[in-house]
Amino acid sequence: MESTPKPRPLGRAVASLAWIGAVALALAGVWIAGFGGTSETLLRIGSFTLAAGVLLVSRIQLRLEQDKPWMIALDLVLLAALGVAMQRYAAIGEALEIGLYFFQPSDIAIGVAGVVVLMELTRRAFGLPLVVVCLLAVAYALYGRYLPWIFEHGGYSLQQVMQVIWYSFDGVFGRPLSVVTTLILVFIVFGAILEAVGAGPVLLRFAFAATGRMRGGPAHAAIAASGVFGTMSGSVSGNVVGTGVMTIPMIVKRGFPARYAGGVEAAASSGGQFMPPIMGAVAFIMSDVTGIPYLTICLAALLPALFYYASLFVAVHLEAVSRDIRPIPRRELPVLTGHDWRMSLCFLLPLALMLAIMISGRSPAMAGFWAVISAIGLGFVLNPEVRRSPQVILEGLRQGGLAAAQILIAVAAIGIVIGVMNMTGLGLRFAGIIQDISGDSLFLSLVMMMLGSLVLGMGMPTVPAYLIVILVMGPAIQMMGVPVVIAHLFVVYFGVLSSITPPVAIAAFAAAPIAKANPVAIGVDACRIALIGFIIPFVLVYNPSLSLVTGFTWAGLAWVCLRLTLTIWLFSTGFSGYASARLGAPERALRFALGLGVLVPMIWVEAACTLVALALVWRDWQGRLRDSDDAPAPERADTIPAEAP
């Protein structure tokens, strides 16, 4: 007991250092977005050093609180190794840029130490999957000469590998890290500031008020809220936790099973990653990788994302009807106050300003800069709590800095994979093999792409998942003549949906402790709810009009929208087993077959299945009208007690 007070001053000092570092990283992201930076080398190594330092010092703070001296010693060693590695890089950075530096053995050893620090930080932030992928990439670069088939390459020494993955702009400090520093950090800070000024809870209240009278109630609110928050968040699991803490218990309370509640939140949170305008920061990376304007990517992603969320709404509604779950009584719905309406401007006005700036031709980074500034200003003007406690802005910057640090570490780790792929050319060889196996079958090639994307994306945040998948799968799908923007969206969808696909399903694992349900079961339900999301990328490839930017015709758009709408209804009723009445197994099977048939890219199959599907929908509609006419007055939803099933 006598020794406990001793570490407290040190703990406070370390906590202050971690706090300052996180705020500094957030402010650096905002400054760079608004005013640019100095040299490219300084931007990349500076942001990486600050991010790694913040995470290490934060962990030391935690170890001090837990009184674990051996772990503190390890973190201090890692911090020292980071300092040496980054000091050395800074010292030789100018010579590296002009290619006039001859490497010494000590440089290689220091580089290895830097990679070790990066791998340990990646393990702490994201677990083992991403670390394993990076280590396999390094092992492949070193020992690929001994492998058979397409995996064999000429072989590289440790010095050659370290020169690429550590001491060049093709590896850890490559272009993706630069994009995150100059473009994405400001939007991460924007999301954190919105939460800090109180816009997040208000938006959730709006979601509940807007959807409360639907049969799904809180489940529909979870879909709406997660779609809004998810587009600003680069982390599916972070979105699940942020909104799920409130929505999942309320969904369960209304009568849905716990596993289904977790599945709804996981599916909705994942979808935010391909919902414009921000798309979980993937849109900016995609724009940089493809050279396609950011707004074009947002436009191409808009309709597919809206159809995805429409399918979630329909699936939840039918599940609620099949379980006889009633709407939330009016007396339990949140009442929106004048303060709520004013606070909604903290989100709406910065978003409108951001879009206006980008439409005017300015960069997304500049739009993000003014979005942050306007959000802070509106927070002070509209929220008395912010005026009374302005330190909440600093807390928002701290939270944004911590989130940014994790994203920077993840993208730096992916730089290892990118460097190895560029060295060995494995991506192009893999693309050639896929083309040889699938022959002239576009569908078979797409299925292989889907499976590969689901496997490569498992256990990873959205941005790293996209970068890895597009690096391996992108060349193959583009070789088949698929337009670039559609090829990349195809990869994004399955890279994102890997977060709900068992057995890894990181979104399901994030929802499991809140729902108190089995994560694999949550993943299964999430996949069932989000099934249309697995189909939309194929529809996009075969019906490019859905993208609005390539191969567009009004007739093509109307035709694909009709068929995709029918598929959503047929699949949702088939899974729930309810349309206007209970469905037997044969009719449920028929609905699944028709749902696929209307999308088969053969005009006579499409037309025949569409006619039958329309007849079924008409019958369902008539049945629901008869049911509503026959329902007695006491069965009205607003007279049913809250505890009714």
Helix/strand-derived category reads mainly alpha
Radius of gyration: 26 Å
Characterize the biggest β-sheet.
none
What fraction of the residues are assigned to beta strands by DSSP?
A: under 5%
Total helices: the number is: 27
Q: On the 0-100 scale, what is the average pLDDT? A: 83
How many beta-strand elements? Answer: 0
Spans of at least 5 consecutive residues whose pLDDT stays below 50 are 1-7, 631-645
The end-to-end span amounts to: 53 Å
Helix content range? over 70%
The global form is globular
List the secondary-structure elements in sequence, H or E.
HHHHHHHHHHHHHHHHHHHHHHHHHHH
Structural write-up:
- Helix 4 packs across helix 6.
- The protein has a domain at 553-631.
- It contains 27 helices and no strands.
- The chain has helices spanning 7-35, 40-66, 69-98, 105-126, 128-143, 158-165, 175-196, 199-211, 218-232, 236-253, 258-271, 282-290, 294-322, 338-359, 364-382, 384-388, 391-424, 426-438, 442-457, 462-479, 484-497, 506-515, 519-529, 531-542, 554-576, 585-597, 603-630.
- Helix content is 76%, strand content 0%.
- It is a multi-pass membrane protein.
Please tag this protein with its features:
cell inner membrane; cell membrane; DctM; mainly alpha; disordered C terminus; 645 residues; TRAP_DctM-Dct_fused
Secondary-structure map:
Elements: H1 7-35, H2 40-66, H3 69-98, H4 105-126, H5 128-143, H6 158-165, H7 175-196, H8 199-211, H9 218-232, H10 236-253, H11 258-271, H12 282-290, H13 294-322, H14 338-359, H15 364-382, H16 384-388, H17 391-424, H18 426-438, H19 442-457, H20 462-479, H21 484-497, H22 506-515, H23 519-529, H24 531-542, H25 554-576, H26 585-597, H27 603-630
Helix pairs in contact: 1-2, 1-7, 1-15, 1-17, 2-3, 2-7, 2-17, 3-4, 4-5, 4-6, 4-17, 5-17, 7-15, 7-17, 8-9, 8-14, 9-10, 9-11, 9-13, 10-11, 10-22, 11-13, 11-22, 11-23, 13-24, 13-25, 14-15, 17-20, 18-19, 18-20, 19-20, 19-21, 20-21, 21-24, 22-23, 24-25, 25-26, 25-27, 26-27
